Amino acid sequence: MEKLDRSILPPRRTSLNVIPARMDTTVTPDSPITALNGVGTQRAVLFEKLGVQTIRDLLLIAPRRFEDRRQVISIAELNEKGQTAMVRGRVVEMGTRYSSNRTRSQFLLVVDDGTARLHCSWWNAPFIEKRFARGQDLFIYGKVRTTKPRSIDHPDTTILEPEEDPRMSQRLVPVYPLTEGLKQYMIRSVAWQAVELCGYLLIAPHPELPRAGLPSLPEAIRWLHFPDDPNQPEIARQRLALDELIEMQIKMQVRRCNLEAQARAIPCPGTHEFVRPFLSGLPFELTEAQTNVLREIRQALNDPVPMRRLLQGDVGSGKTLVAACTALMVMESGFSTLLMAPTEILANQHYEIFKRWFEPLGLPVHLQTGGQKTLGAERPPSKPKPTLVIGTHALVSDKFKLEKVGLVIIDEQHKFGVAQREELLRKGFYPHLLVMTATPIPRTLGLTLYGDLDISLIDQLPPGRRQIKTFLRSPDKLPQVWEFVRKELAQDRQAYIVYPRVDEDQDGTAKAVVLELESLQRVFHPYRVGILHGRLSSSEKEAVMRDFQVKRVHVLLATPLIEVGIDMPNASVMVIENAEMFGLAQLHQLRGRIGRGTNASYCILITDARQAVTLSRLELFTKTTDGFKIAEADLQIRGPGELLGQQQSGLPEFKFADLQKDLELIKLARTLAIAKVRGHAQSIQSKNQP
Ligand code: ADP
Ligand code: MG
Q1: Which CATH number characterizes residue 144's domain?
Q2: Ligand 1 mutation target, pool 315, 321, 570, 594, most atoms within 8 A of CB
Q3: Whole-model pTM?
Q4: For residue 38, what are the contacts with CB-CB under 8 A and spacing of at least 6?
């Protein structure tokens, strides 16, 4: 095998074959993996399945775990009952014994290490026999049962392949993710060479930045693969994570710095011409938090640098209103606004609300989605009026153009990627940017997704909100639940009933909205039941939303489509079926659809889940309405991808950084990146000064 591999190496290498690998100075981290002994083109294909093409790729693969082969003692030293130890020996005998009625069995394995023999027994586990063979070299770990003869029951065993590098004994040995055809000993020996030959050649990104007491990169690489103590791999991971985070944060800060260097902000001092009548026309006062945030925004709109701001606030905290005031400030100064939402429904709803708010002020509002375009293709008037255009990602399309864009607002940014954000910004000449998130996001994610933005936080809900009461019920309680919903309907309230799916799934585990329609129409008769899901055309969706809004429909059956920002203050009950299928952040978002008026509101989660983790997750949800707490719990339980929605979470992929636990590293990386990029910018500026 090894011979065969060598023959297909490039000729240059064959001539070097006599020279030990470590003297081959032509091998670099960027060399293909075939430059290492024992990897020919065939194995290279297997390595590629692990994502490894170059030596660097291999160096950056983290072992899944380690086998501790350090404390091997001789079998003769096993002379205390209850002693726990590791020994190494060769299989000299093996066999299975059965009890007379063959209901019980004992598999006995005898190993010898030259000092003594050890009897290993497995009771009633006949299948174990297949793992072993005479002559095998074994590591055996377990607790001594008897000392005469020496015996251990059900020990942990590792079979040493005859090909295993002898350096892999007496140490912590890495166990790598595997792919078919590659054995641990092969990867180990190749990894060992890679670390020896190239570990020290790796260069960290931005090597001049301090790494907070973490080991150097070559050292981290060695600790990652061949640690001397069990803590080293985690410290190495942190070091490599920090490098990843520094790279990412520097990109963000550079983007931000470029903006500041190139872009002169569109000045939007505002005249209060629109904002003042708008606010005095509202049936309520702004909350203190809203007022503070608007003050921050007004200031930012007057900065010499275009605003780049994230607006965070819990569900129902009134972000839309803040967005509206921001748009008005910009429009007062003669510029237009683009508002992008992730779905047509939400775009439509924003369109309705903003039309109601803006048209009395004489400001045109338009809709631009895949389904609907209210903005004509005719040439705009020579002196364009400040306009608000609301849309979906259709706004990003090349065909759509608008003059004098002064502000871009993105609702639910995490559903869009950074690329889309940048594209939309290109519709204007460095317009101001306001990004809103629908649900609070944990800090680690915030700093990773939005590290280049300033943050404004609405940390207060409008007054008079009744707490939402949340309950957890099993499906056999549904008759009582429907009875409760009917009582609410009788008091002129409305209800949402949410299902995870549109259609029945194959195994029938999740209830489907279309299947439930008929039976619920019967249950709620004479109240009217409407249905909303992603399969409907946009006009159908709009029709049902309008019916719900004007109370022609009393109960809305829906998929999680309604999750995003739908606002119907009269709805006071929400029933969520198969609640176990939703993430906490998503449940929070759903629940945020009720409790928007002044009525007491109720959220009822239906689940037949029995697992303790699922139930405790849902129970936690019934006990808190704090979106930040819920998001943090969801991050810990389900991880960042799930929390943000997998498709376009916009999260960079990390090999080492862990958004569930690396908050301190993320903060450090950001601080370092800011220092580096700002310091750099300052030195350029001072050089350019006369
Ligand atoms: P979100 O932050 O989830 O986007 P919205 O902007 O949709 O919240 O606001 C939720 C509801 O609260 C809306 O009906 C809105 O009109 C209302 N609202 C917003 N600000 C206030 C306020 N200061 N006082 C009372 N109600 C408010
Ligand atoms: Mg909203």
Answers
A1: 2.40.50.140
A2: 321
A3: 0.74
A4: 2, 5, 186, 189, 190, 193
